């Protein structure tokens, strides 16, 4: 009887160890879409338009803010490992720029090494009433209520 319990316990521990080790494997996830190089070579600057680019390689991941803005096709590979923060290990951005008339002007490919870190700044909007807390404002408004209009 004891041998059966010991064997089950060892099997249970072995399964837990294998599951724990499996959780620590590195996983890579791909996000986005970049057209293959052979499709990009079919685009002719000075000839193709926005419509022909969309027909040939598909709708872009994003486009410029203005109507004349370029098309951007973006692909990223992200590494996930256990409890660690996900890390971008590869990124490709293909920019197709257009003239004001909507004709392809240029095709540029950027990699992760071409990226720039954009610093974010914290902006705080100051109020006119200074550092009065919420509770002080709440109690300060109690005397300002006019309940005479609520009666029938």
From TrEMBL:
Keywords associated with the record: Membrane, Signal
Location of the Outer membrane protein assembly factor BamE domain: 33-107
UniProt-listed Gene3D superfamilies: 3.30.1450.10
The name this protein goes by in its record: Outer membrane protein assembly factor BamE
Organism, as annotated: Tropicibacter oceani
Lineage of producing organism: Bacteria, Pseudomonadati, Pseudomonadota, Alphaproteobacteria, Rhodobacterales
